[in-house]
Amino acid sequence: MTDSQRFLSLDVFRGLTVAAMILVNNPGSWSYVYTPLEHATWHGCTPTDLVFPFFLFAVGNAMSFSMKKYAGQGHAAALKKIGQRTLLIFGIGLLLNWFPFFRWNGENQLVLKPLSQLRIMGVLPRIALCYGFAALIIHFAGERRSFVIVGCLLLAYWWLLPAFGQSDPYSLEGYAGLRLDKWLLGEQHLYKGEGVPFDPEGILSTLPAICNVIFGYLAGSYIQQKGKDYPMLCGLLIAGCVLVFAALCWNLVFPINKKIWTSSYVLYTTGLALLVLSILMYAIEFRGWRKAASFFEVFGKNPLFIYVMSGVLVKLYLLLRTAPQQNLYGWLYTHVFRPIGGNYPGSLLFALFHVGLFWLLGWWMDRKKIYIRV
Question: Of 124, 152, 221, 351, which residue is most buried, by most CB within 10 angstroms?
Answer without folding.
Answer: 124
